[in-house]
Amino acid sequence: MPADATSSFGRGRRAEIARELHAAFAELGMPLLPGRARELVDDRIAAVAQQMGVTEQTALGYLPADWAKRQARETAVEWGGATLPEATAEGLTEADAQTVAEIGRGLAVVLHDSLARTVGELPVSTGEPLDALSDLLDALTTAPGEVLVERRALLTAARYLGDLSDRLHATSTSSESGPEVRLSDEQRQHIAERLGAAADWARRAAQ
After folding, report:
1. Which of the residues 3, 129, 133, 141 has the least number of beta carbons within 10 Å of its own beta carbon?
2. CA-CA distance, 131 to 180, in Å (whole number)?
3. Residue 205's closest CA among 163, 164, 165, 146?
4. What is the rounded (10 degree) CA torsion for 169, 178, 112, 102?
């Protein structure tokens, strides 16, 4: 059953702040996945409590009234810096067809993860096209020669691949909710390494 983005805030003051944060990100054109706003609030309160040596309930009272909007703005600035290379990249570049296919397969994994984290268990109508896309990209890995690719597209791919690789490396089955919780540590590590390698290939190809 699809998750409602506004149904995962919980109750109480933390939920109110999470709703404010979710709305602040949306206003900046950066919608958060369901539950993410509450995670950010909980993480912030836990960090303040640890730094100040107080309970989380006490730390909650230390959050400024405008914390949600400030957090969204700061993230937007960081995001802008992260995407600046893509925004300024111009022109086409030649890239090995097999490398492009591997980058594409990595993006299929990113898309699958994003959908699963958004809607939960993927319906067959979504999973089958993704599987078909992966199969087609598998076939392209044996294609000889080079193809012309937009540098901007390669850098965008590198960012998404790198972000998911980093998250999988940092994920613990005991602390992380989401589709990757069903993966063993060995499987997660393997996928993270492949995605990280694809991100590196994309960055190099864009040069």
Report:
1. 129
2. 17
3. 146
4. 10
